Amino acid sequence: MTVRRLWPRLALLALLVAGVVLLRLTVFAAAAIPVRVAVAQKGLVEETVTNSRAGTVKARRRAKLAPETGGRVVSLPHRRGSRVRQGELLLQVQDSVQRAQLSLAEDDRKVALAQRDQACLAADHAEREGVRTRGLAAQGIVSTDQIDGVDSQARTAEAACRAARATAERAESAVRLARAQLRQTTLLAPFDGIVADTFIEEGEWTSPSPPALPIPPVLDLIDTRSIYVSAPMDEVDSARIRKGQPARVTVDSRPGQHFPAHVVEVAPYVLDRLEQNRTVEIELELDDPAVAASLLPGTSADAEVILSAKDGVLRVPTSALLEGGKVLVLDRGRLVEESLRLGLRNWDFTEVRGGLEPGARVVVSLDRPEVKAGAKAREQESGQS
Question: What is the CA radius of gyration of the chain?
Answer without folding.
Answer: 45
